[in-house]
Amino acid sequence: MQSLKSLFDRKIQTLFPLVLYSVLLLGTSRLVLDSLRSENSYVFKVYGRPAQGQGGRNKLPMAVLPEDRIGEDCNVFEGKWVWDNVSYPLYEEESCPYLVKQTTCQRNGRPDSFYKNWRWQPHRCNIPRFDPLTLLNMLRNKRMMFIGDSLQRGQFESMVCLVQSVIPKGKKSLQRIPPMKIFKAEEFNASIEYYWAPFIVESISDHATNHTVHKRMVRLDSIANHGKHWQGVDILVFESYVWWMHKPLINASSWEWRPGTDENCFNESYPIQGRPYWGSGSNLEIMKLVHDALQKLQINVMLLNITQLSEYRKDAHTSLYGERRGKLLTKEQRANPKSFADCIHWCLPGVPDAWNQILYSYLLKDYQNFS
């Protein structure tokens, strides 16, 4: 079997010049996850709990029931956002100590909270409800790494918040080792990690804190410096888009959803509803190029195109309630939303939680039961 490094060098390098779109690339080097299900699982009820050892090595195999898997005909990317203030949000800002100021919109002064109560619902099927214990058991003795820019860091923080509440105090930790963040679940011998690489390929913007969007140079044929940090990781999740654009225009032109206006995402409280919608920042041609390139790879890579479902959510951006250059906006800056509203990053809890639910559903779908 070829090493992960050689696979990256020969195959994935051909992909990165095309990865200019806001997609999640779920690359799995090993996706046969030998672990247990949650406290309420059928296996536990029938056979009882397994003996606990380091990383749960003396354990029964986990079983994923048919109703927990999305079907082959289920397109989870076509659907709508439905109001659900009963079961959503899946966590609160106050319950997750791992969120950074860039995402804690309510703590930063956002007056409304409607953005937290929308659930993504595919048209013809259902996404399994996120079960943190199930995910942790699938990750037992394994590593999951999110690789990309600050949007990807938001998805990493979302995933940590989704699982951390079921882990006892003293059995979980978060380390910051730039350009990485590493969340560890001790009892599962599992880690969820983040790696800063805004272009995926090497660039002059690879320093985790000392970088600028105004000067951007990349080496399209090289991932060697990054790739050595990815070797040995079981599940790799890539994202890259905004840094490739000269002037990012994601949910920033209000005339697209309200003709005749010249505003942005500031003060928006509801998703775009009632019609299929692609924003001006979406490029269907690039999407097709990425899809076609992935079909030629000889490694297990899954494309999860969460672009359109995210573009509906003009209401869920940090707007005036995030950070700019590491600081919250001043009173004077907040008085000028046309210039200072952030219509790229997302509040948490929020849209990235839906991305992780979809990621979770694909991990369940590909999970191999053991007899």
From TrEMBL:
Membrane topology: Single-pass membrane protein
Entry's localization field: Membrane
Gene Ontology MF term list: O-acetyltransferase activity
Trichome birefringence-like C-terminal domain: residues covered: 127-250, 255-361
InterPro entries recorded: TBL, TBL_C, TBL_N
GO CC terms in record: Golgi apparatus; membrane
Domain Trichome birefringence-like N-terminal residue range list: 73-126
Family assignment from sequence similarity: Belongs to the PC-esterase family. TBL subfamily.
Protein name: Protein trichome birefringence-like 31 isoform X2
Organism: Arachis duranensis (Wild peanut)
